[in-house]
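Handout, page 2. Input:
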Amino acid sequence: MIPNPWDVGSARLLERLGFKALASTSSGFAWSLGRPDHAVTLDESLAHFRVLSQSVSIPLNADFEGGFAVEPERVGTNVVAAATTGIAGLSIEDSTGDPSAPLFDATLAAERVRAAREAIDASGTGLVLTGRSEGFIAGRPDLGETIRRLTAYAEAGADCLFAPGLRSLSDITAVVNAVAPKPVNVLVGSDFTTVAALAEAGVRRISVGGALARAAWSGFLEAARELAGHGTFTRLAAAVSYPEIDGSFS
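Output:
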């Protein structure tokens, strides 16, 4: 399990809960700045990775989105910059942000992963490289195409493979088998499965993306909407106590 904090406080609390590694979340970080996902700059992300990695003593994987570039050479350059922030790994996505063509051409996408691999190797940092195929969350939920892309990313040097949006254990198992022996990361953002079930399917890594941030925002919004709409305070009464949360940072 590598849960996803969005700031120093959430990172430190997750470490105190006993998790052995963490991963950043592009969406959670963007929301903390009052922006939508993918509206954060490269420099802001690099600074965020540095702050998070220095705030905990356990490894941090970076949500590096699409490498903040299109061309493989520029992806490699940006990966070199990320490697200086203290992170233990990063991911490269194949989504474009263009609804009419939501995924990069498969050949280009693999070249982008290869450029990231070469940059990591040149840096000597040993970062874990995760290749992500975004079809299931970008409007192209094609299992065969996803497997072809993940296989190509594995051949291009990705250490771990990741297809966010998979919810069927049969689909997840198919991906695990297709890229074996390389490990697969599964994103869990709701209660469709369990750690035990995913482990049984051969999954080696689980992250939750922006789900913890959404859970935190849910509590905030419920309490704030009650205040604004009804002038009552019942949601505040259900909050974690001041001594408990304050003592967690002492």
